[in-house]
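Reviewer comment 2.1 asked that we show a complete input and output for one of the modelled complexes. We chose the adenosine monophosphate case, as it is the one discussed in the main text.
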Amino acid sequence: MNLIMLGPPGAGKGTQAKRLESAYGLVQLSTGDMLRAAVAAGTEIGKQAKAVMAAGDLVSDDIVVSIIAERIAEPDCASGFILDGFPRTVTQAEALDAMLTASNQRIDGVLEMTVDDDALVGRIAGRFSCTNCGAAYNDELNRPKVENVCDLCGASAFTRRKDDNAETMGARLAAYHAQTAPLLPYYAARGVLRSVDGMADIDEVTRQLRAVVDGIGEN
Ligand code: AMP
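Response of the prediction step:
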């Protein structure tokens, strides 16, 4: 089964994608994580992406499409993947459709998480993640069960993203509404769009998403 998480920055895509990854044995593919790794490693792609990401704008379609094309061709993706942060433009979605069709695959479900814009800035400002395994946390909504210890892997080092600030948030939200929101009618027209209330608490959102995914799995 191949899924896409869709929603604005701060909706909880990464957190929920990780939960679905372990529940259904899917591989989580986050273009944001891949680009941050490229920036940290100082690769050519990282050099091109660094300033764009810091400004909250979208990296070029060519770059992210080539990253994803390479990644989904790897053997671990054959049993299913969950895309988190890709596609973000209709051009990316069309490129994804073309590459999946070429390998006899398809997108089975697009999981939209709806969240009010007003709630997003606060969510983004409070978020941090485990440096070791990437598990996502939030100062207000989702702290580790034991202070300073990752629930998933037990590590004690956490990081905060440089682009998670109020200044960049405006640009990221604008990019979402102008460039990514058109994916909603795109996938609705293909009959694969499912929406859940991303304002509910984290466990309730997981419950709703799992109900949706179970329904897709039965078809
Ligand atoms: P994310 O971790 O998904 O919030 O992504 C962080 C940043 O990486 C975004 O603000 C963009 O600058 C860039 N990025 C990630 N995924 C994409 C994508 N599919 N298309 C363009 N830019 C992306």
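The chain is about 50% helix and 15% strand. We note this here for comparison with the apo prediction described in Section 3.2.
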